[in-house]
Amino acid sequence: MRHFVSHFLFRHLLFRGLLLTFMVAVAARGDGDQQKAPIMLIGAHLEGRLDVDPQSGYNRLIRRIMPIDQSLAVYQRYPLVRALRKFEQTQRSCLFPASISASVALTSLKPDELFESAMVDFVSSHILTRKGQPMINSKEDVFGRTIAVQRGVGYTALMADSDRFNIIRTPDDKTALRMLEAGRVDGMYGWFPDTFIIAENNGIQLPDFNPDYILFETTTHVVCKTGTGAEPFVDHVNMRIRALRESGELQRILGPFARLENK
C-alpha cells in the first residue's frame, strides 16, 4: 500500500512538473511571437491633415516615413478617440501625430512609458476671428463674445471664465469656419495650421489670429511605448524626417502653412 501511494505521488508530481514546464514554454513562445510582431503605427484622424484625402499633408508624410518592409511596421488610421484607446491597448504600437505631453494628457500612459521621434512640426491653438475684425489678444477680449468650439474639444485655458462668454458647439472645424465667415459667431477655437488648411481646402475665407496669444502649443512626433522593441522603427522614422527636412521636401509635403520650427 505504501509503495502504491509513493508511486501515485511520484506520478502526480511528475505530471505537474511537466505541465508547468509546458505552460512556461507556451508563455515564452507567446512573448517571443509578440516581440516579433510588427510595430503598429496608429494614425489619429485629423480633419484636413490626416483624413480620407490621400493628398493631405500627414498622409503624404506617412507614406514617406513608413518602411517598405512591413515586418518592421504597419500603419492604420482611426478616429481620434479610438486611436487613443488602440494605442493604450496595443503593446507594440506608436501614435501619430502626438507628443509625450499630449499622450499623457489624453491617455492613462505615464511619461516614462513613452519615447518620441524627432519633431515633425509645431502646432498651436488660438481664438480665430474674421479678417478685418479685432483680433483676440487676451482672454479678457473673449468676454461677452460668442465663440464656436468643436464638440469634444476642451478649452482649458478659458474654462475658469466660461460663464463670461457664450459657446456654440459645432460638429467640426468646417462648420465653425462657415459660421465665422457668415458673422454668426465672433470667433472660433482653432488650430494653426490645421484650421487654415481646412479653410483653404473648402474655399472659406482665411481667419485671423494673434500668434502671441496661445491657448495650447505642442510639437508633433511619432510617440512609441518603451520596452516594446520600437527603437529600430523610430530610428528609421528619424532618418527619413531628417532627410526630408534637410532637402526642403518636408515643407512641400506638409504645405505652406506648416511650421517646422517651435515658433
From TrEMBL:
Keywords: Signal. Residues 1-27 form the signal peptide. It comes from the Bacteria. This is ABC-type amino acid transport substrate-binding protein. It comes from Kordiimonas lacus.
